[in-house]
Amino acid sequence: MHPDSRSVRKAVILAGGLGTRLSEETSLRPKPMVEIGGRPVLWHIMNMYAHHGVTEFIICLGYKGYMIKEFFLNYFLHTSDITVDLGSGETTVHQKRAAPWKVTLVETGDATLTGGRIKAVADFVGAEHFCMTYGDGVSDINISALLDYHSSHDRDATVSIVRPSGRFGMTELGDEDEVVDFREKLEGETGWINGGFFVLSPSVFERIEGPETTWEQEPMRGLAEDGQLKAFKHEGYWQAMDTLREKNMLEELWSTGRAPWKVWA
Fold first, then answer.
1. Which residue of 3, 123, 192, 224 has the fewest C-beta atoms within 10 A of its own C-beta?
2. pLDDT tens, 191-235?
3. How far apart are CA 49 and CA 197, in angstroms?
4. Where would I find the Nucleotidyl transferase domain in this sequence (predicted)?
């Protein structure tokens, strides 16, 4: 039985990949730490969830994960005004701007694939349904509506689907928005793709063999084949940050006050 949507409070965020197509930035830091408006894109994603009441985060670390740990361990230093008394060594934090979040940072391995990262945090998720997304995409998706939709059906998984232009794989839908299959996109073809914002039952952990499992392959295909994957259509803004061009585009939107994903106050 699915939980009430308001009881879903945990979001797993995959933050361990190499981000090779954004090497100008990721040679120095993990991709989720690439900044938009002076804050990591990971911070933007977490604010999107927190706006809808999802405030417990489980971050799957890999490549340069220590930088993400240091960001949260020193969160006050990054977000608040401070006074440092060099004589006494005391630090005073003024007007604390810390978010009311609980953040669990889990080392899931540098070479672990997406499915393996999800399975590695099963103990931290527990027996609850949970959100899952990637640490490199922003959207104005209505997380509350996504959770309501997931609660309305009896399937194990819900995937958000979007219609961007570009290079992504296609999502094939059947009756009642059940996901039937995934395939590569043909030149000039348009259609729905995996938008990366999931709601999952803990039963999905059983579909993941180990560190070398890619979530988007066997586990998702198995869910689709078994009729356990429903699609939530998002018609609004969505953008992955895979290239320097896309990073600069997001920066421009933020700096001019036109960032569609900034749904929080």
1. 123
2. 788 999 999 999 999 999 999 999 999 999 999 999 999 999 999
3. 10
4. 10-238
- Give the pair of three-digit tokens for residue 167: 């290079």
DSSP string for residues in the chain: -PPPGGG--EEEEEE----GGGHHHHTTS-GGG-EETTEEHHHHHHHHHHTTT--EEEEEE-TTHHHHHHHHHTHHHHHSEEEE-TTT--EEEES----S-EEEEEE--TT--HHHHHHHTHHHHTTS-EEEEETTEEE---HHHHHHHHHHS--SEEEEEE--SSSPPEEEE-GGGBEEEEEPPPTT----EEEEEEEE-GGGGGG--STT--TTTHHHHHHHHTT-EEEEE--S-EEE--SHHHHHHHHHHHHTT--TT----
Confidence (pTM): 0.87
- Domain 5-255: which topology? Spore Coat Polysaccharide Biosynthesis Protein SpsA; Chain A (3.90.550)
Q: For the chain, which residues make up each domain, given as ranges?
A: 5-255
In whole angstroms, give the CA distance from residue 216 to residue 198.
12
Residue (of 60, 68, 42) closest to 106 by Cα position: 60
Return phi, psi of residue 10, to 5°.
Answer: -110, 140
Give first-to-last CA distance, the chain, whole Å: 34
Rounded Cα distance between 177 and 214, Å, is 23
Rounded Cα gap, residues 262 and 140, in angstroms: 7
The residue among 7, 13, 199, 221 whose CA lies nearest residue 120 is 13
Tens-place pLDDT, residues 84-103: 999 998 988 887 767 889 99
